[in-house]
Write a structure and sequence with these properties.
Helices cover about 15% and strands about 35% of the residues. It has about 280 residues and is mostly beta strands. The radius of gyration is 43 Å and the shape is rod-shaped. Pfam families: PASTA.
Length: about 280
């Protein structure tokens, strides 16, 4: 007399780790067949599907096939070189891959263009090879020419200044001459932007040529007392320098850089005036 085989309902196994799934059906005396598969939704090691599926009645001794995830499915690599970065990023997303963008300055390749690409986990991978979805693709994207640091032009001849500007791929503009007490006549007396600031390639640097210091008349200080002298020099923009003699007496003479100056003489604006009082 044959024993009647008992039937059991297949439980929900999808999404369970393989070990848990086996435990869940271990008392049903089914023949468990395990196959490998890939899924973008089910984690590696978990059940993708069972055959028959959950809810079906299955007799003892019959087979149940469990498909176990080996991880995400594969995508075929494409060549992203010379592709606009926006288009490359969109395509990488469509392939289920993860982009990592590295910006690189380049003098020739237009900004926003992919210069090269690589798979970090598989350095030798190339277009046509397959990688697991979720793999990171590094795109080296041109950021265009590197910014230029504006050089120091003040104190240079105009030829030297223009050569420096041109060498950096910048352009220059010359504006009206102006006074500069610290820079000799005919040399660059000022610039915009200031030295050290950044400009893109092709940016403009303006400079102007020094006319030397502005010449103004020395105030009437010879023969005056100190209080009046201090006020007159300050109002005219001069600096009160050293003093000799008796400062409570009248001023006998004045010098700038060792050269005698008298009342009303044209002298460089902002000069330091050294004073000699009687006594």
């Amino acid at each position: 007399m044959l024993l009647r085989k008992e039937s059991f309902q297949v439980p929900v196994l999808v999404g369970l780790p393989e070990g848990e799934a086996r435990n869940a059906i271990s008392n049903f005396k089914w023949d468990v067949v395990v196959r490998e598969g890939r899924s973008d939704q089910v984690k590696s090691g978990e059940i993708i599907s069972s055959e028959p599926g959950d809810g079906v009645m299955l007799k003892e001794g019959e087979s149940i096939v469990l498909t176990v995830s080996q991880g995400p499915t594969f995508s075929t690599l494409e060549d992203f070189t010379n592709v606009a970065s926006d288009a490359a990023l969109a395509r990488i997303d469509q392939l289920g891959l993860v982009p990592n963008v590295a910006k690189v300055n380049d003098e020739a390749i237009a900004a926003g263009t992919v210069m090269s690409w690589a798979v970090a986990e598989q350095p030798t991978a190339k277009a046509g090879d397959q990688v697991v979805k979720g793999t990171t693709i590094t795109l080296n994207v041109s950021d265009g020419p590197a910014p230029r640091a504006v050089p120091t032009l003040v104190g240079l001849t105009t030829a030297e200044a223009e050569a420096k500007i041109t060498e950096l791929g910048l352009v220059f503009a010359v504006v009206a001459e102006d006074f500069n007490k610290d820079v000799g006549v005919g040399l660059v007396g000022g610039q915009l932007p200031a030295a050290g600031e950044s400009l893109p390639r092709g940016g403009s640097v303006s400079y102007w040529v020094s006319k030397g210091p502005r010449m103004i008349p020395m105030p009437v200080i010879i023969g005056q007392y100190k209080a009046a002298i201090v006020k007159l020099l300050s109002e005219a923009g001069f600096t009160y320098g050293t003093e000799s003699g008796k400062s409570e007496r009248k001023l006998k003479s004045a010098t700038i850089a060792g050269e005698p100056v008298g009342n009303g003489k044209e002298v460089p604006e902002g000069s330091t005036v050294d004073l000699t009082y009687y006594g």
